[in-house]
Each structure stands twice: as structure tokens, then as C-alpha cells.
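User: Second chain of the day. Same drill as before.
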Amino acid sequence: MNNKQPLVFRLFLIIFIILPLNANAVGELLVSPTRIILEGRERSAEVKLANKSDKPATYRLSFQDLSMEESGGYKELSESMPYDKTASNMIRFSPRQVTLQPGEVQNVRLMVRKPKDIEEAEYRTHLFFKAIPSEKDSRYHIEEQKSGGKNLSVKLIPIFGVSIPVIVRHGELDSNISIENAHIAKDKKNLFFALKREGMASRYGNLNVIHQKSGGESEIIKEIRGIGVLYPLDKRKVEIALNENINSGKLYIEYRDAEDEDLILAKEEITL
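Assistant: Same format as last time:
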């Protein structure tokens, strides 16, 4: 008698999760700094990677050209929709793949070589750190199910990745930021406004939302660091959840320079 072994179909779904870094760490990879800006005579920079997990981790490095959308998210550009101000063709980096033991730190070195007769402009790409999963690593196997009788196994494997912008500026470039259309929802739970950028350079800053009560006392009720408006995007929409009871007084929105927090780039006032 022939015992036929059932044929088991395995379906592997690979999910790429790509996160631009607004914080210093995403998951178990620490990346510092979270953006690189090379201007003037600067020709090199270093990015520090640290494995904060208790398991070895491997990452493959590459460049991606991404465009920022009004929501603050990113969209990957394709060959049919190229970015004519990419910096990827003028930057070299090493290593291109790293394996980090738990707690290990690795430096990635970037070198820029500008082409001759380069146009005065801001050039940008994004350095992408793609996690290379190990089949033995349970962190990458988020679901596995077998359906009874149908001999079907499903395994979801998310591939995590983070990216940081790498900006090369050539020439005297500047930009200005203003705050537009600032208003509060009727239920007073959300604040809406837009950061409008003018000029030929990206801007990074830190946001403070300050509540001045009717009696004159003021307090910072929201702080958001590292909010960027990347060239050529001219407007970024911002929505902030308000957890405080703000039925009276005034709200002030401050956008301060990320490198010099004493420098207020834009300010807006809302009377409640």
C-alpha cells in the first residue's frame, strides 16, 4: 500500500517596512545622526550604527531617491519618474553591508566628489539601511498558520528598513519658512497648520506649541523635534493632537532652527 505524503504549499509574504528616521532609533537599530548635510568645503561625513538588540543583525546599505509629500511622508522615485537633483551619483560610502553583534557599533563613511561645472543647487538622496533577516530569527516571523486539510502554510516575513537624507549643497543657498492657515478643530483636540518653504534649500526645525492662559501664564504643551520641509517641496501640512484643556487664552506655534534653537524661523498666534 502506497502512503502518499500530502503536498504542502508554503506561501511566503515578504513585507518591506521602510521608515524615514524622525527619531534616533527605529526598532533595534540606532542611527546617528539622522541626516547628513554637506555644504561649503565639507567633503566627508560619518554615520554611526549601533545594534541595540540581544541578537546579531545584518544590514545592507544602498541609496534611494525619495520625494517628500505634503503629509511629511516619502514616495520612492522610479526610473520613469527620476529626481534630477539626486546626490547618489556624487557620493561614495563604505562598507555596503554590516553585521553587528549585540551592542556593537559600526561607522559608515561617506565621501562626496562633486562633478565639474555642477549647477548651484541642493542635491539629495537617502541612505537606506535594509535589515537582512535570518530564518532562525523569530523577530522576522510574525505569523505562521496551517489551514486544516488544505495543507497550506502562510508565513509573513517583514523586512525592516530605515533611511536618512543625505544632502549636498553647492553654492550660496538659503530658504525661509512661514506658518500658514493655523487653526484648531471645533472639538479643540487637534491643531492644523502648514509650513511653507521658499528658496533653494531644505529646512529642518523643532516645533513648540505654547499655551498662554488668560491669566498670562505660559507653558509648552507640545514639542516635536526634527520636522523638515525638503526641497523642492514648498509646503508641508502638520496636524498635532492636543491633550490639554485649551478653551481660553492663546496658542503660539514656534518653529525653531534645528541647529540653533535660539533662532525662531517662524511664529504664529491663535486666539482661542
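Residues 1-18, 21-25, 140-147 have pLDDT under 50 and may be disordered.

User: Great, on to the next one.
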